[in-house]
Structure formats: structure tokens, C-alpha cells
Amino acid sequence: MSAVEQYARAHIVTDSADTADDEHRAVPIALRYDPDADPRQVHVTLPGPHEWVFARELLEQGLRAPVSNGDIRVWPCGRVQAVMEFHSTEGVAVVQFESKTLLRFLRRTYMATAAPVAH
């Protein structure tokens, strides 16, 4: 199975003083899924680089209703947006995506795990 990578633009809002100028500006975000490394986890890389690894199920559930697990929260925001909130010792980063971007990524991850295995 091959890894799935998708690049997206999202809006980051954070309480960190060094990124206050970036507030509400679209920035590139990398979404990654590697079923060979761990079929249950997705990776989200924010500018910096700051990488977050969490359950794919959390992302899927967060598109329908607010969910959290440890330092990560995901929830729908209106009909076309979704929000991810990441907590660290450096502060809080809130990232707003178009829901269709995350749905497309999730679809691709499920297609990658459904691919037939060669013997």
C-alpha cells in the first residue's frame, strides 16, 4: 500500500505572539497517511514545521460532531468548514479547513487501505 499525501490551504489562528501577523491568512498544510507505518494514524503538518499525529477516526468523527483526544480537538464549523485545535507547551494552534478537503483526504486514506494486497 502506498502513502497518501495531500496538501491543503487552511487558516491558522493561534495564541502564539510570533504568528499573530499570520492570523486569518491561508497557509499550506500537509495531510499524510501511511497505512504501512500505522493504518490507524494520520499526520497533519503545520508551518514551522509542527507535526501532529492522531487517530484517523478522530478526524472522521470530528467532521460530524465535536470530539477530542488529549491535546487535539476537531469539530465541524458550519456546513462547509471544520476546525482542528492543537495544544502544546508552545501554545494553542487553531486551524480552519474546508470540510471537503478533509473528506477528500479521508476518502483517499480508505481507498489506500482497501487496495488489494499482492502475494
Outline of this structure?
With 119 residues, the chain is of the alpha+beta class. Helix content is 19%, strand content 47%.
Which properties best describe this structure?
single chain, 119 residues, alpha+beta, Transcriptional Co-activator pc4, Chain A, eight-stranded antiparallel sheet, 8 strands, 19% helix
Description:
The structure is a single chain. With 119 residues, the protein is of the alpha+beta class. It has one domain (4-114): Transcriptional Co-activator pc4, Chain A, CATH 2.30.31. Helices cover 19% and strands 47% of the residues. It contains two helices and eight strands. Strands 4-3-2-1-8-7-6-5 form an eight-stranded antiparallel sheet. The longest helix has 16 residues, at 99-114. It starts with a strand and ends in a 5-residue tail after the last helix. 19% of the residues are buried. The mean pLDDT is 87.
Number of strands: 8
Give the low-pLDDT segments: none
Order of helices and strands: EEEEHEEEEH
Strand content: over 45%
The CATH architecture assignment turns out to be Roll
At the fold tier of CATH, the topology name is: Transcriptional Co-activator pc4, Chain A
* Helical fraction: 10-25%
* Cα-to-Cα separation, first versus last residue: 12 Å
What spatial order of strands do you see in the largest sheet?
4-3-2-1-8-7-6-5
Superfamily (CATH H level) name: Sporulation-specific cell division protein SsgB
CATH class label: Mainly Beta
Q: How many helices does DSSP assign?
A: 2
Number of structural units classed as domains = 1
* Secondary structural class: alpha+beta
Radius of gyration: 14 Å
User: Which outline best applies?
Assistant: globular
Question: Quick check: average pLDDT?
Answer: 87
